[in-house]
UniProtKB/TrEMBL annotation:
Protein origin, superkingdom: Bacteria
Class of enzymatic activity (EC top level): transferase
Species classification: Bacteria, Pseudomonadati, Pseudomonadota, Gammaproteobacteria, Candidatus Kentrum
A GO molecular function held by the record: metal ion binding
Protein name: FAD:protein FMN transferase
Source organism per UniProt: Candidatus Kentrum sp. TC
Catalytic activity: L-threonyl-[protein] + FAD = FMN-L-threonyl-[protein] + AMP + H(+)
């Protein structure tokens, strides 16, 4: 999880600021805009109207993405595709195509460590709809084999024009929860920039994108949370520097049975929750959608393979591994420029 460190003004007039908050996609959103608001509004009495319209625009974008990509809504575009029979081309919106196409790109890049067809396994282990891990037990081997038969990003075909998806397995099921929030962040950021706003921080469920300066006139400061369940404290602070930031970790979403802990991070190749000691991964990228997916992929790969992959692909990443004596931090060379 990421925490935003607010910039405080030591003296003088506080900068012009807008802050929108609310709920979306089963989590929260926070959008902060600093300065340039009067210019974007056109000045004068138009300010209050602009503020309302801007906030309504943010809400509309997030609501549309939720209605497109949620697996918790039977009427979402994604749920309708998941429920569709047969292997015919299924027309989809530009947004759904964009996210699925990016997901498949990351799947190929990570050799399947990131896989949006893993939904049946997520659900089987109690981390999907209806999400009740407290009632979950480890599935049987027969149930695992049946779910694994439906898994595999190569079982999904896409077509750009006109945008469409096609199942190569009739019971293929997509879950975009590890990439959709990042896409939402990018789309809200593009909306703000389209109105000439260049100092902002967009946060959807802990996936962030920052641009320009904070209220103190400095780069937005973001903190990696200490990966301890039931505690909210800062582990490390860094500067966002006009980047998107995403974190994946297993220290909040898990369940325990008979003294064994089961992570919500599922390895598509084994069909089981990961068992390594990598507890938190933070990735920076120009796009939140890509950072979101890559953070999940590194969490699946683990502390060694994940680091080697990130270093090889020049991905700025910060990995935290649990040890017998505490935590061990490791960052790729590309992350160093963001550290204070």
């Amino acid at each position: 999880m990421l925490l935003v460190i607010g910039g405080l003004m030591a003296c003088g007039k506080a900068p012009d600021t807008l802050h929108y908050t609310g709920s979306t996609m089963g989590t929260y959103y926070s959008v902060k805009v600093i300065e340039g608001i009067d210019d974007a509004a056109g000045g004068g009495d138009a300010r209050s109207t602009f503020e309302k319209q801007l906030g309504n625009g943010v809400e509309r974008i997030l609501a549309e993405i939720d209605h497109t990509m949620s697996t918790y809504r039977a009427d979402s575009e994604l749920s309708r595709f998941n429920a569709s029979p047969g292997a015919d081309w299924h027309p989809v919106s530009d947004d759904l195509y964009t996210v699925v196409a990016e997901a498949l790109t990351i799947s190929r890049l990570t050799n399947g460590a990131f896989d949006i067809t893993v939904g049946p396994l997520v659900n089987l282990w109690g981390f999907g709809p209806p999400e009740k891990p407290e009632e979950t037990t480890a599935p049987s081997e027969a149930d695992l084999r049946a779910a694994m038969a439906r898994i595999g990003y190569r079982k999904l075909a896409i077509r750009a024009g006109p945008p469409a998806l096609r199942k190569e397995h009739p019971r293929l099921y997509l879950d975009l929860s590890a990439i959709a929030k990042g896409f939402a962040v990018d789309k809200v950021a593009a909306y703000l920039e389209g109105h000439g706003l260049v100092n902002y921080l967009v946060d959807v469920g802990g996936e962030l994108r920052a641009k320009g300066k904070n209220a103190a006139g400095k780069s937005w400061q973001v903190a990696i949370e200490k990966p301890v369940s039931g505690e909210r404290s800062i582990h490390r602070v860094f500067a966002a520097n006009n980047h998107a930031i995403a974190t994946s970790g297993d220290y909040r979403n898990f369940f325990e049975r008979d003294g064994k802990r089961y992570s919500h991070t599922i390895d598509p190749k084994t069909g089981r929750p990961v068992t390594h000691e990598l507890v938190s991964v933070t990735v920076l990228d120009r796009r939140a959608m890509r950072a979101d997916a890559l953070a999940t992929a590194l969490s699946v790969l683990g502390p060694d393979a994940g680091y080697e992959f990130a270093e090889r692909e020049n991905i700025p990443a910060w990995l935290i591994t649990k040890t017998k004596t505490g935590f061990q931090d490791r960052s790729t060379p590309g992350f160093s420029e963001f550290l204070d």
